[in-house]
Write a structure and sequence with these properties.
It is a single chain. The chain has 132 residues and is an alpha+beta fold. It is 23% helix and 29% strand. Strand 6 (111-113) and strand 7 (116-118) form a beta hairpin. 24% of the residues are buried. The model is unreliable at 1-33 (pLDDT under 50).
Amino acid sequence: MLPATVPGVADLLHRAPGPGPGKGIGAATAMTAELLTGDLVDDPVEIVEQPDPRYPAALAQAQITGRVELSYVVDTLGVAEPGSLRTVTSTHRAFEAAARASVLASRYRPARLRGILVRQLVRQTFSFRLRD
């Protein structure tokens, strides 16, 4: 289950002198009780290092391509929270396992809101294509 709150974010938004660049205060205020998304932070999560997902051998041999979209939470230390990983869409379960392993082995630059590190909900798509 994804965490529903981000401790301290409500205080940051209510004390802030105004909305951040390009952000409406209404949207930010509405999200105070929710996990933050990239459009509500000043500096969204960035991938620092991410291994390529390992193409499942059986699917490569059968020349099966596909894609997986995952959602997950990146914490303030720059790692994905394992319990937050969810599959949004997938063409094959074996691709899901490869994409999940890649996310869990990745390092991220954490999100910031008003200069404070915050947890952010991320959505990422992985495409599996055979190379010539």
